[in-house]
Amino acid sequence: xxxxxxxxxxxxxxRSRATFxxxxxxxxxxxxxxxxxxxxxxxxxxxxxxxxQRGRRWAFQSREERxxxxxxxxxxxxxxxxxxxxxxxKEREYLRDAAAAHEGYVLGLHFGMIIPTIKNQASEEQQKxxxxxxxxxxMIATYAQTELGHGTFIRGLETxxxxxxxxxxxxxxxPTLSAIKYWPGGLGKxxxxxxxxxxxxxxxxxxxxxxxxxxxxxxxxxLPLPGIEIGxxxxxxxxxxxxxxxxxxxxxxxxxxxxxxxxxxxxxDGTYQQPPSDKLAYGSMVLLRCSIxxxxxxxxxxxxxxxxxxxxxxxxxxxSPGGEEAQxxxxxxxxxxxxxxxxxxxxxxxAGNFIDDFYREKYPDIAKGRFDFLPQxxxxxxxxxxFSAWTCSAGVETCxxxxxxxxxxxxxxxxxxxxxxxxxxxxxxENMVLMLQVARFxxxxxxxxxxxxxxxxxxxxxxxxxxxxxxMAEEVALKCLVLAYQHRVTRLxxxxxxxxxxxxxxxxxxxxxxxxxxxxxxxxxxxxxxxFVVENFVNTVSEKHLDEKTREVLTSLCxxxxxxGIITNxxxxxxxxxxxxxxxxxxxxxxxxxxxxxxxxxxxxxxAYDFPDTVLQSCLGRFDGQVYQALYDxxxxxxxxxxxxxxxxxxxxxxxxMPNKELFSRL
Amino acid sequence: xxxxxxxxxxxxxxRNNSxxxxxxxxxxxxxxxxxxxxxxxxxxxxxxDPFFRKFKxxxxxxxxxxxxxxxxxHLYINKKCKELNLTEPVDKFFYTEAAAPHExxxxxxHTVMFIPTIEKQGTEEQKKRWLPLAExxxMIGTYAQTEMGHGTFIRGLETxxxxxxxxxxxxLNSPTITSMKxxxxxxxxxxxxxxxxxxxxxxxxxxxxxxxxxxxxxxxxxxxLAGIEVGxxxxxxxxxxxxxxxxxxxxxxxxxxxxxxxxxxxxxxxxxxxPPNAKIAYGSMVLVRAAIxTDAxxxxxxxxxxxxxxxxxxxxxxxSPGGEEAQxxxxxxxxxxxxxxxxxxxxxxxAxxxxxxxxxxxxxxxxxxNLDSMPQxxxxxxxxxxFSSWMCSAGVETCxxxxxxxxxxxxxxxxxxxxxxxxxxxxxxENNVMMLQVARFxxxxxxxxxxxxxxxxxxxxxxxxxxxxxCMTEEVxxxxxxxxxxxxxxxxxxxxxxxxxxxVQSGKSPVEAWNGSTVMLTWAAIAHCxxxxxxxxxxxxxxxxxDSKVQSALTSLCKLYAVHGIVENLGGFIQDQFFDSKxxxxxxxxxxxxxxxxxxxxxxxxxAFDYPDEVLQSCLGRYDGQVYQALYDxxxxxxxxxxxxxxxxxxxxxxxxNGKYQQxxxx
Lengths: 667, 667
Ligand SMILES: Cc1cc2nc3c(=O)[nH]c(=O)nc-3n(C[C@H](O)[C@H](O)[C@H](O)COP(=O)(O)OP(=O)(O)OC[C@H]3O[C@@H](n4cnc5c(N)ncnc54)[C@H](O)[C@@H]3O)c2cc1C
Ligand SMILES: Cc1cc2nc3c(=O)[nH]c(=O)nc-3n(C[C@H](O)[C@H](O)[C@H](O)COP(=O)(O)OP(=O)(O)OC[C@H]3O[C@@H](n4cnc5c(N)ncnc54)[C@H](O)[C@@H]3O)c2cc1C
Hints:
The structure holds two protein chains of two kinds.
Chain A: H1 9-17, H2 22-30, H3 33-48, H4 63-84, H5 89-100, H6 108-121, H7 124-135, E1 141-144, E2 160-164, E3 169-173, E4 181-182, E5 193-202, E6 205-215, E7 228-232, E8 245-249, E9 252-255, E10 265-266, E11 272-273, H8 283-313, E12 315-318, E13 325-327, H9 332-367, H10 374-401, H11 414-421, H12 431-450, H13 478-505, H14 510-516, H15 518-543, H16 548-568, H17 570-574, H18 581-598, H19 602-607, H20 613-616, H21 627-636, H22 647-657
Parallel strand pairs in A: 1-5, 2-5
Antiparallel strand pairs in A: 2-3, 3-9, 4-8, 5-6, 7-8, 10-11, 12-13
Helix pairs in contact in A: 3-5, 4-5, 6-7, 8-9, 8-10, 8-11, 9-10, 9-15, 9-16, 9-18, 10-11, 10-12, 10-15, 12-13, 12-15, 13-14, 13-15, 13-16, 15-16, 16-18
Chain B: H1 9-17, H2 22-29, H3 33-47, H4 50-53, H5 63-83, H6 89-99, H7 108-121, H8 124-135, E1 141-144, E2 160-164, E3 169-173, E4 181-182, E5 193-202, E6 205-215, E7 228-232, E8 245-249, E9 252-255, E10 265-266, E11 272-273, H9 283-313, E12 315-318, E13 325-327, H10 332-367, H11 374-401, H12 414-421, H13 431-450, H14 478-505, H15 510-515, H16 518-543, H17 548-568, H18 570-574, H19 581-598, H20 602-607, H21 613-616, H22 627-636, H23 647-657, H24 663-666
Parallel strand pairs in B: 1-5, 2-5
Antiparallel strand pairs in B: 2-3, 3-9, 4-8, 5-6, 7-8, 10-11, 12-13
The structure holds flavin-adenine dinucleotide (FAD) (2 copies).
One flavin-adenine dinucleotide sits between chains A (109, 143, 145-146, 150-152, 183-185, 239, 244, 423, 426-427, 430, 432-433, 436) and B (314, 316-317, 328, 331, 333-334, 402-406, 408).
């Protein structure tokens, strides 16, 4: 980090005012002093690497340049990882983030999704054949699932794979316009193979969706093979480096052995063998979903670092005439926007840790065919993914707006964080669709409750007595906050279940009743996720060994998270008079008290994320707070300034100033 | 519009199912059949002009191209408007909207701010000198207000203009890094003059902020003049076509006559003459704020057109096994996210229309010397600007997310609408700051109420009895809805005042008490704006003359706007038991009923906005609903597909496959 002599004085003062030692919190977040040292060591290697210093910042590059830069940077990081012998997942990520935090990795799906899929879904023989090729990048692949017409409803995919027993081949086709594969990352220009999801037809019967390894480009010339039309899908909101692609297939034949056959099989004669369970194909999807919570939490954390540091540096408006202008961080409205988001970033970080551990703990059982925990794992991973992606991406935008005009410039780094973060609301399961899956789980648990059956561990609280009132008192105990959230879920679950019952009572089908109550079901599912995140935050600050001062600060944040969530969703908490009006007063008063309480530690809390400037890439979020010099430098290096007078001046403006010359007839 | 033969059958069916005549609603929105015809005529003039059709879509252009192409278009528009004798602002607007949709003009501030400011603030002599030059584009100007360090707090601007009576000149300086101008539109590369806002010093005294005409570039060579450093501020979230600029002045001398002196003056000897009334210079800012309300409404309307048409075409998920997949617009959750936004777009459109009329009426009074309505004009314009830009820009993002994966592509047109509308939250008065100004007005009104003084009509709701309960019954009458909003606003105003009062009594200064209550004050201001917009919507549908079927459909939409706002902000309405629990249930149920009621008219409601495809520029929002073909065409024409194999393949990937990384030593 930069020497403190150059640090903006407001920021330096903030740091000296903190009531806790931020190193303790850093150690807590990153797993101890040794891990933190390693992290910084790796980040420093990147910072000093001469190769990575080359090239302009991403914002100054055209999309084509960015795609190009993205490829070499990431391949270079791969090489560094290998040279340094870095194998730990987190340590690999520190290197990659420090080198190319905001540049998409076109081979990311190859390593992150395809190799695991081969391991999980391919037979021993297939693995032997493909893994070495994949690991050496001779084979570069992606996962081709989504089509123009179908993303959510996988069973509706239209691409076909028809088995021909005569030649022992599958014939692949995208028979309609809407069957064209559209969106898979890296598909457009990068890969030479893909794992294609298609409807299997054999012996004249449709057998549902299966996976096929398909070569799409020549291994040497990289040109598309016959029958393959493939390309990039064009510019997007973000993800510019990524060649998300489209693929049209016309009678492409692949050998029978190219169907991924660990579980289901097609024999030579075309006989179809079902998998032992259709749940087995499910694992890698969940894994990716589980990782999203932590990654969107990181987006929000970065946005908080930027906006809170900037708010400490930025001064705007004299508080009293002729007096000093206030740091905008001192405005209550600014705190009201930012501090709950800071709390949210921690809450989501901890929720991400939870779901990661949960997956690690339960997945081995599932892989062995024991499915007891599958419904919970599914519900929790779906719910936390959707809830965190919505909350964090909206939060990033709020952080951006809190930086005023400068937040709108790419110099702030914030627009980029947003466009990287927001698609998490859509991919790996569209959020609303996932919420309704959570709701389905809740309805099942609710009917267990009604039938006196035992409940899954994560919903034990559904047994609580709905007529009970809140225990909330002046001290705003964490326990009473958790109870309030659980009460709210329980009531909303009951409401949704009643809604369905009522409509069935009117003579409608189960299906119609469900669709007429999905808004209420969504409310229940959202409240469930919220309650879980609150409880998990409370558990994290209560149980984990932390020094007292750090715990105090984290507890304030945790309380703020709980109280703010109640105030901003008050109706759902008080509709049944769970809180009385005095308790409401207490809560809204506590909200402002907490904002004040957190104020002196705000900068130390964001410092504790310990993101180097190379990761933030923000003129506003710099550790040294020298934001104005950085904004000036950014402006001076704008590509539009390479020429003092642009050609368009001579070509268009000058002639337009001379009214008689017919400029546009010549164009 | 496309001929019906090619229209997607689902969309055609939707159009047959509506309960009202779309044309009648268009007539109502645009104030009569003549105006609708005129609007279409102007749109057609632009869309049929081959000049505008010859450029590639903006998403495929580099930033440099975006600027250059947009500049050409706008110069052409200027010329055309003259040729066609389009002088009315609305006429120009509709023509431009279709000619260069979503392309922020690189010379726009010249006509929108620069010329009007000369007209309003210049002396007769100055007008005579500058206006002809400006009209002929010999002089191209902008308005240079915001500095790197100050946007909100104008009195804190640091640029200085010091009068030198010896040479009768002002000496202009940017004395600090934070004092450099940063953000003014078109300042970077396009303009050769600007109106600089600077601190005036004369006879050793600071006389506050004044405006100075400063030439920054040579009229022939377009090179920056001595003492001027000027350039583009670099890439941003959006506004790629606009060269928002920076400007540093060092000892630039301009003649005394270049200070805009209609109101305040500096005499030859340096004597400063104050303006007769400090507020007179105020009008154009209000006009721009009023325009933002309509801009925001229009952006949300376009996003609704796109997402609702697409939701009628998109089918996803079998509702019962083996059955047809449902149109996603039939999912209650989809309706719940989109229809309230549809209602909001109408609500905001009517608010914008009101704002404009109110502006005209009030400025006429002000010009006539009657300043009574000035505080109201200010409060209403600030409040509606902030409320509409927040609601509409968040709404546009929701529309985008409702389109699933395809929403994220620039093919959808939605990301562009978002990045164009969202800075409306920041410029022309940062929204939080605006809301606090509204709050200040409300507190003044509250003081009047306490003193028994008369209140302006639109504030009279404050005097209602806060102990009264809601009149809401099963029929959910519009007047009970309006009363609910007014009750909530009145209560929140009282609570905010009470909070300040309490802090003052506990010994805090008024300033501290204010800042200790700004969160509550903001809540009150938002509730006030929400009540205002709701009431306006209700009055518009109840009191206007229109076709009865249109009226009944619009009434549902208006009800939805109001009911949804209550359900989503329930806490604020029930924390004092204004609604009892039965009434809450009625409202929640009504919400679901209204979604179902609006469903058959959803497409007709968006068709009525009557946006040609050329304005929407969206593969998903096309009138004919041929979305998949359009998405496929978009992908095929992606610039990344110009080469079948990208250079990066040979440069980086191929060597990496062979384990060779030596290319990095060459980079
Ligand atoms: C940046 C990005 C990268 C991507 N990368 C990949 C990739 O690498 N590989 C790949 O295969 N795909 C990829 N995708 C595609 C992505 O997986 C899909 O977009 C996603 O699964 C959502 O599906 P959809 O687009 O069909 O949305 P839709 O299902 O069409 O959703 C549209 C709307 O309909 C609603 N809806 C749909 N079904 C229901 C229902 N049953 N009940 C209620 N509401 C419903 C949704 O809530 C949503 O509001 C990517 C997408 C993006 C944006
Ligand atoms: C696309 C775009 C175009 C622009 N075009 C122009 C142009 O043509 N000409 C021009 O002159 N400018 C232009 N601007 C600049 C714009 O006018 C300013 O950014 C705007 O006025 C906001 O000021 P700021 O950036 O100083 O925000 P700040 O005031 O720094 O706001 C940052 C944060 O501080 C908070 N805050 C500030 N003061 C207070 C207070 N007193 N009380 C409570 N909270 C406070 C705000 O709520 C906000 O959250 C443009 C900006 C953008 C994004």
